[in-house]
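Changelog-adjacent note: as of this version, every example in the card shows the full chain rather than a window. The one below runs 389 residues end to end.
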Amino acid sequence: MLDKSQELKPRIVELRRDIHRQPELGFDVHRTADLVARTLGALGIETQTGVGKTGVVGYLGDGNGPVVAIRADMDALPILEVNRVEYASQVPGKMHACGHDGHTSMLLGVAMLLAKEKLPGQIRLIFQPSEEAADSEGISGAPRMMDDGALKGVNAVIALHVDGTVDTGQISISGGKVSAACDTFRAHIVGTGGHGAIPHQANDPIWLTAQVLNALYAVPSRRIDPFQPSVLSLGIVRGGMASNVIPESIYIEGTLRSMDDKVREELVQEVQRCLEVARSLGGDYRLEIERGYPAMRNDERVADLIAGVGRDLLGEAGLAGPKATMGAEDFSFMTAAVPGAMFNLGVKKPGGEPRHVHAPNFDLDEDALPIGTAMLAETALRLLRTHSA
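Full-length structure tokens:
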């Protein structure tokens, strides 16, 4: 499978660069979805468009047997690319900084590899919009596609994510919890405005916020079980217009990450408890909690099978040490519904500098593309044969 995938490398790279030049955000992935649908159609693959708003699903093989799904996300990020490469983003302020261009092109490579295979069941190719964002109802691409039946009748689902800190030629995979639940909190801390020269006649919301921030930053270390992973980070603290004017309120926004459902609820409760500090000092607050993705759990048996494929294709040295992350992934909705797993694909040039996702200089070693393609295709085949047996 790896040899066949290497032969397809020029085409996979061509597709990846095409998608990279024209990044699209959220559910607005019309050009990318059209490219996917046209590529699948040219291979004679039955294709359904408009799934989960702008997603595409391809159907390989016989739907009467077991069904294994492979998911790739298509959307980019609102980041200005700084890389000076001939395939750099041509859309200012948008960039494939998370490698979804690679994910999509590799899944199209899987379609090319398996289009003429005689399959003991069906391999379903799921091209998903909006992993990085949600719609006006707060719902991202994975649950939208699931609502439209993308996982109906599926026995197992797999995916990969590029990792710019792991060398090309390696993968990492483990069972159990591998990425965090993600929730967002937004709050206005309200005081009484006034003149900076007479602060005693106001109730300074900046001072109130300082006390709240001290309380918030102590939550993971002082309020949560130290054996349970948790993160509370502030990303926005905003307020005030002039040096001599005490404002009416301060806006803060932050993220909550957790692996355990109980800890997830504790973090929300602790944020509210911390904001009560403002009321105890004569101020007030308004709080909004936006629920995000759940923690992602890799099915142990699927993860073991992926590891076996990695050993066979890449050798024992091809398995990097497993690592969980406090990052979040909406593939977690799919693995909560169907046994499945996601593995990390190394895309760092050996000896090169790490490239971190969501950074304006993120790029991937294109030598990794046929490796990821072969891993997905061979894993899907083995899962299909396992379920057939």
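Structural remarks: Residues 261-280 form the longest helix (20 residues).
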